[in-house]
Amino acid sequence: MHSSNAQNFGWRGRWIAWRNRIFGSERFQRFAVRFPLTRPIARRRARGLFDLVAGFTYSQILAACVQTGLLDLLAEGPLDTATIATRIDLPPAGAERLLRGAAALGLVEPIANAWALGSDGAALRGNRGIAEMVAHHHLLYADLSDPVALLRRGGGGGQLSRHWHYAESSGNGDANAVAAYSALMARSQPLIAAQAIDCYRFDRHRRLLDVGGGEGAFLESVAARVPGLELGLFDLPAVGERARMRFDSAGLAARTTVFGGDFLNDSLPMGYDLISLIRVLHDHDDAPALALLRNVHAALPVGGTLFIAEPMARTPGAEPVGDAYFGFYLLAMGSGRARSSAEIRAMLHAAGFSRSRPVATAMPLTTSAIVATR
User: Fold this and answer.
1) In this structure, what CATH number is given to the domain that contains residue 113?
2) Is 110 exposed, middle or buried (0-12, 13-18, 19+ CB in 10 A)?
3) Of residues 127 and 90, which shows the higher confidence score?
4) How far apart are CA 239 and CA 327, in angstroms?
5) Are residues 214 and 74 in the same domain?
6) Which residue of 103, 215, 257, 284 is 20 to 30 Å from 33, comparing CA positions?
7) Is 325:295 a contact under the CB 8 Å cutoff?
8) What is the extent of the structural domain holding 268?
9) Tell me, what's the pLDDT at 27?
């Protein structure tokens, strides 16, 4: 920030200008590395900056681990390099390089003359939804190969939007069009569902309608935790049929009702005192998102509740998830944006809800929640 411009922003502008002059000084950087009290800080900041520069390479190492099945293989027990190379169909030198790169990231770790699954690799396998996201990230990376072009065209128009064309086309699609999206959302749902159910008393309600509920993964989790709750799901007819098969297989047919329709244009079924939007609102631009909230408001009785759970922008401690990852993911998808809790609550007020409040979750890095009352 130029010093003359900094004056226009008061003491904070002057502070930022002074700080940036200091941090940008090669002389100060050399001093910070040599001085014992500042050396640990300088090294930590240098590591953070390097990780930012090298992040794409790290992501590709992770993608290679997922694509080759390396992490699943090592979950069976330690193996030597030669055996791993054969099992994941890589030449020994390629396997060795992948293993060493993965070890540097904590995904695997060396043990004697073999390799074992690392702690971060085990954690990743514990949330299969992450691996599912990584498996299709090549589409996102292709769109981000020229991020400036993506920003200039206003999003969409690339590989990710073609893959999710059902989302970009305002929710239209047949069974084939929605299958990949629905399956991915269902496989990545368990962690989100657990946090949502842990942070809110669903047993306060009699009937729950999950709007945009996909294949029914969230409702299946709710059903296991809240036995007396009557459940409904509203989504496109092709998606609803997939949910109906899931409920039948889980023995939930008697407790669930599936409604087919377009939640942006069709009226929602009434008679539910609780409606949920789980990772739905951020998939839509402002105008359709507000239309959806008004549609929900119209369907709820006076005193009825809306429960929203999704990653949110500007969440303290989780800023990169909302504003960086989902900011660019949704831009590439061609629909939606991550919003802050304050932005969503302002939209709820505009949609007619009398009051709303944020609800703390165990892991805001992946899920934040808001409850609103009609």
Assistant:
1) 1.10.10.10
2) middle
3) 90
4) 26
5) no
6) 103
7) no
8) 152-373
9) 86
| CA separation, residue 23 to residues 11, 13, 16, 288 (Å) | 18, 15, 10, 44
pLDDT digits (tens, 9 = 90+) for 294-310: 999 999 999 999 999 99
- Residue 118 in contact with residue 106, Cβ under 8 Å? yes
Cα dist. 299→10, 121, 275, 305, 348 in Å?
A: 48, 44, 9, 11, 14
Gap between the Cα atoms of 372 and 300, Å rounded: 11
Residue 109 lies in a domain: yes
Residues 6+ apart with CB under 8 A from 118: 102, 103, 105, 106, 107, 108, 109
Asked if the structure places residue 327 within a domain, the reply is yes
Domain-located, residue 76: yes
In a domain, 290, yes or no: yes
* Same domain, residue pair 110 and 190: no
What pLDDT, on the 0 to 100 scale, is given for residue 49?
86
Helix axes 92-104, 39-68, angle to 10 degrees: 140
- Please give the pLDDT value at position 135: 81
**Residue 207: what pLDDT?**
98
DSSP-based three-state secondary structure for 97:
helix
Closest CA to 263 of 208, 212, 321: 212
**Cα separation of 341 and 355, whole Å?**
13
Contact 231, 255 (CB under 8 A): yes
Sign of CA dihedral 260, 262, 266, 272: positive
Domain stop point among 90, 110, 126: 126
How many whole angstroms separate alpha carbon 234 and alpha carbon 243? Answer: 10
Q: Residue holding tokens 């169909």?
A: 89
- Whether residue 288 sits in one domain with residue 169: yes
